[in-house]
Structures
1.
Amino acid sequence: MTLLLSVPLGVRADGPDPATNQPASIVPVPPAATPSSLQTDQPDSSFLERHPEVAQPLPPGSSTLSLPSGATPDRASTTVEQAGADQSPFHFFDQVGEPEELPNHLLVVYNSNDPDSKGLADYYAARRNIPPERVLAIACPATETVTRAEYEETIRQPIIDYLSQKDWIARQSMLVRLGSRTVNVLVATRNEIWAMALMRGVPLKISNDFADKDSMEPEPVMQTNAAAVDSELAVLPVFGLPKGGYVPNAFFDDKMTGLGRVGPLLAAKIIMVCRLDGPTPNDVRRMIDDSLYAEQNRLAGLAVVDSRGLTDPKNGHTPGDIWLRTSRDLLVKDGWLVKFDDKPDVLPPTDPCNQVALYLGWYSETACGPWVTPPDRFLRGAIAYHLHSYSASTIRSDTANWVGPLIAHGAAATMGMVYEPYLMFTPHLDIFTKRLLDGDYFCEAAYASEPALSWMGTVVGDPLYRPFRKPFESALAGVGVPHTDHDDWLLLQQVQRELASGQIQNDAGILEKSLEVTGAGPVAYEGLGDLLEKLKDPQASRDVPQVYQKAQAGETLPVDRIRVGLKLARYFTEHGMTGRAEAELEHLRQDNPEEAQRFGVPDVLLPASSKGPSTQPPAQAKQNGNATSVSTTPKSSQPPRLPALPQQAPAPE
């Protein structure tokens, strides 16, 4: 049998030679022996096909979040050979699995050396009805970082031993050609474990082994065998590839077809590994509970997309902004109310957004803005992701990087990078958003968006979380009287879906009839005010103050009253009613003095057409422990450079 395996030169190793139980041997093979019919030099992603406006090579010297031109790992024709069988593809998947099967193929892994890990594993297993035989204890270091040897001995080997003991995996030996060399590997022919949940206590990342020269890629940016533990375990079904660099993800949905699904065919190639982790054990329990709550009710709320306004096709960072703009468009088409920002700065802490169900943004090294400014802005089950090279350098801190603070402030699921990944090897957020909206499990959406495995990405959240499992029509049919905020969000989404599809006209009378229904609450009234204001219709405009006042009267949290009050003051300012605008601002300051200061309520608002001094509140408050310092921190135009590799120690004699 000859199988086609699409990998870059020198991907990485994951298991012993089946005959000797030693690392797989590497044998030089003449280049001419490679059949021309098996060339695999096509791009890893069709991103440039989907976005012809940036179909240019990246400039030399691009920042480390963009793979510099000329540094893309060579593609080599790779074959897996075994006598007496037919040819079949190894890296293409067209199956559509049954979504309800995944819980029956999930393995929960905890660290017996961590005092909280078992309790969390038991809690998760009980909440998700996972049987005891699929809850595995391993004894590994109770640290976030492990060496390659510690990973192999205390994490990978105990897991593969357990799968073999339970007869959940079957493997066969094959020769894999990597350019001018071949290696003897083990390839799974059957694997009953499709997904894995690593509990808090299982290490997060594998440090780089600089002494392992043989595993290093020739390209400087690929000279690392460091990786996230999750991403390394994802390629568990295939053993024996060199350790350096990355493995192309067979499940990467670069053409956004949505066809591939978790199932037995995919599980023979990769396992979708997530972790339930966070600053505290209580954070993990809340993540589990919130995911189930949102799944049962259908996630609905505000979406915040914070881009950087990049459009220059020669800028290596522009693809990241295109992913975000495409995500925005997908959400708008689905009826979501989207707060979209394309300014160079991240959203300031004074922004009064609230009831956020989905956040996607970039680019700041440390968590900041409204996401770490009281009150917590996320709804139960919220998914939040901030793109940064080291966003998951640690998950145990509620102030450092991004993943830990997002979880500490209420997010139920996120993703991050443990070491420098390079932009094109981070989650493609347009794919992630589409797969979520299509009803995927969180683990499916995350892995479909990841081009590279055995790399730097960690997926943090319940792998079984399906935020849109409940059909929209069923959720809408359950709206009660009076409305909850969740009911209002569903009603707003329904109206905006109908507007986007042309089912209803964008007319004041129709909008009011659709949203001023029996039991409607403050969220629906605020949304109605926003829609009427956008009409720029004098007749409709006269109704805006009354609608906003209804919304404000129904709000209970200061952040919500201030947000609606600022919209009301802006309306009065833009329509020449300066006195009423100033009165509204004064009212906000008197009723909520502490919050008014926190959210930067000004003395006066200038019309949008005015060229006077800015009335925007101070930009960016960063959290430093328990203290809050105010400083101007724009989104970095140059992400941190890849640190120089230290001199490798000489091999012992």
Note: Residues 85 and 541 are 73 Å apart (CA to CA).
2.
Amino acid sequence: MASQHEQHDLLRQAIELARTGDRARARVLLEQVLQADEYNELAWMWMAAVAENKAQRREALEIVLEINPDNASARQALERLGGPRAGRKARQSAWLAARIGGQAADEREFQPTVRRPASEPPPPSPAPSPEEIEAARVRRLIELARREQQKVTEAAPAPFAPEPVEYYDFAGEMRRRWLRRMAVFLGTLLVIAVGAALVMAVVIAASEALRPPPPTATPTPELATALALLASPTPTATLPPTGVLITLPAEVEESLQPPTWTPSPTPTASITPTPTVTPLPVDRYSLLFSSRRAGDERRNLYTVRGDGSGERRLTDDSADVRAPVPAPDGLRAACVLRSGGEDAVPELALFPLGEPAGEAGDGEAPAPQVILRLGGERFSRPSWSPDGLRLTFSSDADGDDDVYIVNADGSGLANLTNNAGVADRDPAWSPDGRAIVFASDRDGPGQTELYRMNADGTAIVRLTDAGGSSFRPAWSPDGARIVFISDRDRDADLYVMNADGSDERLLTRDDGSAEDRDPAWSPDGRWIAFSSNRQSEVFQLYLIDPAGGNLLRVTRSTGDDLEPAWPGR
């Protein structure tokens, strides 16, 4: 026999099927419910609703009235069908007896569900024996008496209405109500706790403010006299072996008694202000650059302070030296060397940043160390890896410009962008060592844009997309931004963008069509050095902050001062 919960589920499914019009399946489920509980008044009402014909509906309604004579809905529906038939109780009792008598399930199925022609009269019900009728009637009366007793001890159920039945999830609703009440209760406790904490904080602060300052101990006249006597110099005497008894005046002796102890107040912790970084004045910075001054036969390396003072020449004018880039350790600089002058084949060399050639350029200069000879005509400014072990640069040694990497001793040369007919130039190594940004015309011959790739030459991504050309990129010390040159507005200007190519901004505005070149970020990220002809017919060195303000001129010479770099970077 199905449990009460299973009967409830079957009845709910049957009602849903009846509402959707699937009467045949609804009847099957209702018959299963009635096999488990033949006195289920609701199941008999829905059996009447899904009956195939009036005879079946009448028979189901008669059974409902047999179970509950007070069911007004069933009585009204039966009256609309012509009222109860004669001999109803006998037939119903016989049917109940057959149901209770333990017949097989296939013999106890609801007979009105069998389809037959409308013209054929319903088959006569089998006539039960008098003993079966009497036994069924006794069992039914016992069951009705038990149900009446339950009605007395429990609240009587609401009378059935044939309207659609909606089942109420009482347990779920009680659980939701409990959760809502707990949420309100916990929220109230939290508000009370926060309010109490605020009140306590105010009370403590007020008590601290109203606490009187600790009293200052004032010495008594007697103690002052004793202290004066003790402070005055006394002659040193040698005591005899037996010792000398010294007697002090009563007032002095009384004043030298141990003072009473007064507890010192608990000190209140004061908030230490957060220190702010004080920017260095520009004269504390130094710049390394190349220039050909009056009297120089070739380009030489120079150093100068950020305010233009302390200018010195580092090389001896024996070779053309340009594009200096200090190593991360600050002890040497990579540069492009042309030993035979400006028309000679470029070479990659290392120059020790030791003693200068002298204030006037007449001292003994250290000799550059050539580490690589490739050939070709063009050789870009090199860039160090963060660990100082490798260098990247561009060269047209194989016919077009490509980006190379090489160890600091000249070994391990590798071409990262080995593609014919494309100009890849101006590589710059990122501060974390994982990426290299460079300029290339691979997407438009003659006009370069900026690209980023891994340090091994893979995963090339385009960063800029503007008219004209973008070139000479340089990383900020934190690797978050890139400064570069672009002639998208006809003249070459400084721009800055995020490392992913977003948020491009123009830095050098209102420069009167001047040309800006060779940007380089200071090690602390506060300044960008570059060369420009904005205030002179020749290129001079300037400083500007990354926001485009505080433009400062550094050099004032008669030659072109180019390619500034920051020693120690």
Note: DSSP finds ten helices and 24 strands in the chain.
